[in-house]
From TrEMBL:
Catalysed reactions, as listed in the record: a quinone + NADH + 5 H(+)(in) = a quinol + NAD(+) + 4 H(+)(out)
Cellular component terms per the entry's GO annotation: plasma membrane
Group of enzyme by EC: translocase
Protein name per UniProt: NADH-quinone oxidoreductase subunit C
GO molecular function: NADH dehydrogenase (quinone) (non-electrogenic) activity; NADH dehydrogenase (ubiquinone) activity; quinone binding
Organism lineage: Bacteria, Bacillati, Actinomycetota, Actinomycetes, Mycobacteriales
Assembly and interaction partners: NDH-1 is composed of 14 different subunits. Subunits NuoB, C, D, E, F, and G constitute the peripheral sector of the complex.
NCBIfam families: NuoC_fam (TIGR01961), PRK07785.1 (NF005856)
């Protein structure tokens, strides 16, 4: 077996995992994290040990992609007419054995409909919608990730769409996949993404009059009033420690 020259002799699994999370050549670096986000190697779990980590997204993957990914991409290119594939797909990423198509938001319904209806693709099921907030990814701070499955062909695929914080609108896929009803509501509730065309885009977990979106990274971790009780949660560095 060929030894990985990028890993120093004696390096343990935690160090290997940490190295894997660093930016690789071709990755898209969107920020740097400081402070409280976990640790590996040093044993410092306080979050105040000068922890620094690059925030990066996988870069575009050149073909061939491997497995059924090439067949899937080639077929989608065929069924989106008039250069529709190039107009719709920003980049293709194969990362950790998963295929993600980054789709321009205005083309999302057309791509999803083609993936659902074409006999050679037949992604009949949307398993869920995940929201992500990258405050430093200027112009596309908010991401929505749709997880698709083909029951017919036993395949998986992800569609990722981005929108700027100043214009957080993404077309709803409710008309293509009705199962996205509650998933899009949850993503709106926690991240503030507005899914245009959704039949009832209301909060699903937080009270209707709740201010802000709790899973955004600019949402305060503490020091906010607790609803209905008049108490306050102190910021993390002011909380009482129990040993």
């Amino acid at each position: 077996m060929k030894e990985d020259s990028s890993v120093a002799p004696g390096q343990d699994e935690a160090q290997r995992a940490e190295q894997d999370q660093r930016a690789q050549p071709g990755d898209e670096v969107i920020g740097v994290r400081h402070g409280m986000f976990g640790v590996s190697g040093t044993g410092d779990t306080s979050g105040y040990g000068g922890l620094v980590r690059t925030v990066s997204l996988p870069g575009s993957t050149p073909p061939p992609y491997g497995g059924y990914f090439d067949e899937l991409v080639d077929r989608l290119r065929e069924v989106l007419p008039d250069n529709g594939f190039d107009a719709a797909i920003e980049k293709i990423v194969v990362f950790r054995g998963e295929l993600t198509l980054h789709v321009r938001r205005e083309r999302l319904p057309a791509v999803a409909r083609a993936l659902r209806d074409d006999e050679a693709l037949r992604f009949e099921l949307c398993l869920g919608v995940s929201g992500v907030h990258y405050p430093d990814d200027t112009g596309r701070e908010l991401h929505a990730v749709y997880h698709l499955a083909s029951i017919t062909h036993g395949r998986r695929l992800r569609l990722e769409v981005s929108a700027p914080d100043a214009d957080p609108h993404i077309p709803s896929l409710y008309s293509v996949y009705p199962t996205t009803d509650w998933h899009e509501r949850e993503t709106y509730d926690f991240f503030g993404i507005l899914f245009d065309g959704h039949p009832s885009l209301t909060r699903i977990l937080m009270p209707d009059d709740w201010r802000g979106h709790p899973q955004r990274k600019d949402y305060p971790l503490g020091g906010i009033p607790v609803e209905y009780k008049g108490a306050r949660i102190p910021p993390p560095d002011q909380r009482r420690a129990y040993s």
